């Protein structure tokens, strides 16, 4: 029987605490839970109002992986859920709004993925996202070059963008937007991806076609679609090591010279949060959100 822990007045079952999830480093289930508890103050604002999809890997990254979008069986009745629209009809998804629900969700061993809209207004996007994915032999170093171009281009439209690592091999760019549907944001993002390809044809591709991607950075604009999700800031990823999708400064992006310069494990991120807080905090300033041209 899983031990029961009280978290802010809620009883949370935490199981298999000694289980090694990341064999390359010996990182255990207990360490995963400790990581999420430690960064909860900066993670929760990025999850709180957004329906969460879980990429679960209960036996570690080398085991079975599966996406869970609907409320999982056995979810405690005190975990907040929300009905969300889908093409096949409405469904119910989890909202991770506080530390108890975060610890319950983390016990599932999962990456956290969120939409670019909040549950109270699923018809309107409040985030713009670009997923910069390098096709080998391109690396995150090349993603940084593309990111800097996109930053300046977005600024010309009055939109301030922020960066985080994907926690894998690429880079994510996030911006606050207002007054637009997901469809409109997708159209705008695609137009900028096409523009980036025209400006840097030797480096950028805006289409997902695999044969076009070796040695180039795929600027994935499609994650702005209402049905799509993106790995949340501070989520652990199902990689060989406990890598994190970590916010980074533009100085770090500009100074990146090797892939290891922008690779952060759980312990690295805990230290960064302690020293710098949430580098993505400006995203919560709704007055600073940009309007699409």
UniProtKB/TrEMBL annotation:
It holds the Pfam family LigD_Prim-Pol. The keyword GTP-binding does not apply. Residues 28-279 form the DNA ligase D polymerase domain. InterPro entries: LigD_pol_dom, MtLigD_Pol-like, NHEJ_LigD. Keywords: Ligase. The keyword Repeat does not apply. One of its GO terms (molecular function) is ligase activity. It comes from the Bacteria. NCBIfam families: ligD_pol. This is ATP-dependent DNA ligase. It comes from Streptomyces fumanus.
